[in-house]
Amino acid sequence: MARNALSSITTFHVLTILLLLLRTIAAVHDYHDALRKSILFFEGQRSGKLPSDQRLHWRRDSGIHDGATAGVDLTGGYYDAGDNIKFGFPMAFTTTMLAWSVIDFGRVMGPELGNALKSVRWGTDYLLKATSKIGSGVVFVQVGDPLSDHNCWERPEDMDTLRTVYKIDGSHPGSDVAGETAAALAAASIVFRSRDPAYSKLLLNRAVTVFEFADRHRGAYSNSLRRAVCPFYCDVNGYQDELLWAAAWLHKASRRRLYREYIIRNEVVLRAGDTINEFGWDNKHAGINVLISKEVLMGRANYFSSFKRNADEFICSTLPGFSHAQVQYSPGGLIFKAGGSNMQHVTSLSFLLLAYSNYLSHANKVVPCGDTTATPALLKSLAKRQVNYILGDNPLGMSYMVGYGARYPRRIHHRGSSIPSVSAHPAHIGCKAGSQYFFSPNPNPNVLVGAVVGGPTNTTDSFPDSRPFYQQSEPTTYINAPLVGLLAFFSAHP
């Protein structure tokens, strides 16, 4: 589809548009500082008993009895955004992307590699707990009742809302969340393979078991748990892509033939067209194609050639100015896709552009797109332009990363950040008592360093620095996770 659209556009027009989008607006960025802060953000999202080396000191222990009502230890993990729910689906995707960031870019993270590894392990330690009953055919996929939680505005340290535990099993399947969990565990097993072999083996073995469960009991978790997960993290895209995504990571981690055969047998899942440039917690299409294409580009897996064709199509569909109807660019040069929390698309798609650029470079390949050519250098420039926009090279001159630069969002939609910390206000702040802080025009008292908010959600590059505008002002772990890899690369290749 993208190539047909490209055929009527001249190389001159393409280059003109690209030069406009890639022109430098601001001075050099401190990518290493941004990398450090992007990882530090995850410490602000931690649930459970905090470790002695916790660096964001305004946070305290929270959710320390999670899982008790189900007779299982579900402490730990991450709050996905500005609320106090632990949603397993986006948490698993976050962990997968943190692991991929380390796999592809860990070697250039410098002193931040240790912190990146801790961020991965904080996620996998929880996912191991959530799958501890997999032998009985049970996976725990969420802690906390979203309706009662979203009816309150309170610190995680003060939570008095329901900490309901939600699970999937053979009678109530959730191949999507289980598949993503298997992918996260498999990807992380690669991260720890040489660093902690015993832990890596545990992760891979659990990934295998969870994937078998997900594939055997097929179905979308939003059908089984609609009240709990919709409309928050309702599976709109279906579960088949998560199964293929998990198989791709298991193949990468284990090199077992059965996963290769599973991928080939199920490649029909990846339809071209509207899904070619989708990648995020609910849709893995572009990510699967890019991940598997590395095998083809390295000359090791011609049987995966259809995935490379899809990956090339994805690349062409994201080129600015003439791209796929579902990928637009704002006047300031930001990738824009319909829906809320646009930065999740910006960081995830940019990660894929950069990863594929590196794979192409090592194979000495380019991507033909109609009358133009997508070179590795061009793809790196496109990804870097998006990162620079986030860090302040935009019409507002505003960093969308909290704590980076002179101007950044001060009123983010985040309970813990917006309410005085326990050290500043030791007394309990109840469910409705926090409303005064939600509606306050004052900046948040606690700086959630490194948090990247949803950002502009229209094509005018405008941004309301206001808590009620949650689609623009709420940070999420799955915005930051791909950004970790991007910032690592550009800190070493500014």
UniProtKB/TrEMBL annotation:
N-terminal signal peptide: 1-27
The entry's keywords: Carbohydrate metabolism, Cellulose degradation, Glycosidase, Hydrolase, Polysaccharide degradation, Signal
InterPro entries documented for this protein: 6-hairpin_glycosidase_sf, 6hp_glycosidase-like_sf, Glyco_hydro_9, Glyco_hydro_9_Asp/Glu_AS, Glyco_hydro_9_His_AS
Molecular functions (GO terms): cellulase activity
All residue ranges annotated as the Glycoside hydrolase family domain in the record: 31-487
Catalytic activity, EC: 3.2.1.4
Active site: H413, D465, E474
Catalytic activity: Endohydrolysis of (1->4)-beta-D-glucosidic linkages in cellulose, lichenin and cereal beta-D-glucans
BP terms from Gene Ontology: cellulose catabolic process
Gene3D superfamilies noted in UniProt: 1.50.10.10
Annotated family: Belongs to the glycosyl hydrolase 9 (cellulase E) family.
Annotated protein name in UniProt: Endoglucanase
